[in-house]
Design goal:
The structure is a single chain. By secondary structure, the chain is of the alpha/beta class. It has a domain of 111 residues. Helix content is 30%, strand content 24%. The strands form three sheets. A seven-stranded mixed β-sheet has the order 2-3-4-5-6-7-8, with helices on one face. Strands 9-10-11-12-13-14-15 form a seven-stranded mixed β-sheet. It is globular, with a radius of gyration of 20 Å. The two termini are 25 Å apart. The N terminus is likely disordered.
Length: 343
């Protein structure tokens, strides 16, 4: 597994980025990885997933694969400059799919800014039958810009390059709790499955437990870490290998459930380089437990390249330095390498 962990300070924000590539630690493995990069088209490139760290633990997740771009939620309005800088650093001008899980301000606060500064091709959002001032402004702007909008009433599939999206809408038209209007989105890229469920609370999680989920490699923890009556059962059902929480910690029930499954746990609240290093070591331990029944002689290893950013480093510099650290880590096999400690 190739993972770049970047501690980045952008207007006092940060984000976690995952790049999903699995390879077997045999002599041909490094060559395959290089060849994959040298010959890849957009549809064959790895999928990068960014989780923005925000002021009040709001949600904003960016997925990119070459020129293909998906944005799930936009954080609050006060988070927009950090989100905009991330998009600009990644040279993104067009968002192919903007998925708004539900109309709370910590999920849609930056939508109007996004519509002003970027081209948005398609918006996916839940039906919401109540009066909502901010949502009305958003829908009016979408209409004025003639942006295509889907309000799914049943599970819908969408495809972007080699990325498959399956969106699961709420089963009911009206809920007492607004969080239960949350869309759930399953993102599939090659053999990797990622699940995003917005702020789903107990009633909505019970609905989602009716789905026959595939193996979930990455799960964005529902409702910013908060536990409810269905949290533990839902986590037990999906058994995520990696869990990301848009906060500094999880409620005890959520944390214990994830630990029991030996899930690797990340938090978007700003982390030190030492914390990132320790996370990589824990991931190594979990990955080394994986075996391939058809080829028991093969061993899966995990190498990591880490770099700490500063205000003088752009995104391109960060990736180049993380790649340098990753290259050296792979050369030494199964290592965690900090760019700052490279001679």
């Amino acid at each position: 597994m190739e993972v770049r962990v970047i501690k980045n300070e952008i207007l006092e924000r940060s984000f976690i980025v995952f790049r999903f590539i699995i390879f077997i630690a045999v002599l041909a493995g490094a060559f395959f990885l290089v060849r994959h990069y040298n010959t890849a088209k957009d549809n064959e490139r790895p999928l990068d997933v960014y989780f923005l760290s925000t002021v009040n633990d709001a949600n904003a997740t960016l997925l990119t694969q070459g020129a293909n771009t998906i944005l799930i939620d936009t954080g609050e309005q006060q988070d927009y400059q950090a989100l905009k800088k991330l998009l600009k650093d990644e040279q993104i001008k067009t968002i192919d799919y903007l998925i708004l899980t539900h109309p709370d301000k910590d999920h849609v606060g930056g939508v109007l800014n996004i519509l002003q500064d970027f081209s948005v091709v398609h918006v996916i959002m839940p039906y919401y039958g109540k009066a909502h001032e901010n949502l009305e402004k958003i829908t009016n702007e979408l209409t004025a810009l003639e942006v295509s909008v889907t309000y799914p009433s049943r599970p819908r599939n969408f495809t972007l390059g080699s990325i498959k999206l399956t969106v699961y809408p709420p089963l009911e038209r009206h809920y007492k709790k607004d969080n239960n209007y949350s869309l759930a989105t399953l993102v599939t890229h090659q053999q990797t499955n990622m699940l995003f469920v917005g702020d789903s609370e107990s009633k909505r999680l019970q609905e989602l437990m009716q789905v026959n989920w595939p193996t979930i490699d990455l799960y964005l923890v529902a409702h910013h870490r908060r536990a409810n009556l269905s949290s533990e059962s839902f986590i037990e059902q999906i058994k995520p290998k990696i869990a990301v929480t848009t906060a500094a910690s999880n409620d005890l029930e959520v944390q214990n459930s994830l630990k029991e499954l030996a899930s690797a746990i990340y938090f978007t609240d700003k982390q030190t380089l030492q914390e990132a290093y320790e996370i990589c070591l824990e991931l190594q331990k979990q990955i080394q437990k994986i075996t391939i029944s058809e080829h028991p002689e093969l061993r899966i290893t995990a190498s990591f390249g880490l770099v700490e950013s500063s205000s003088t480093k752009g995104m391109a510099d960060l990736f180049l330095q993380a790649d340098s650290a990753l290259y050296k880590a792979k050369h030494e096999r199964n290592k965690v390498m900090l760019f700052e400690e490279m001679s």
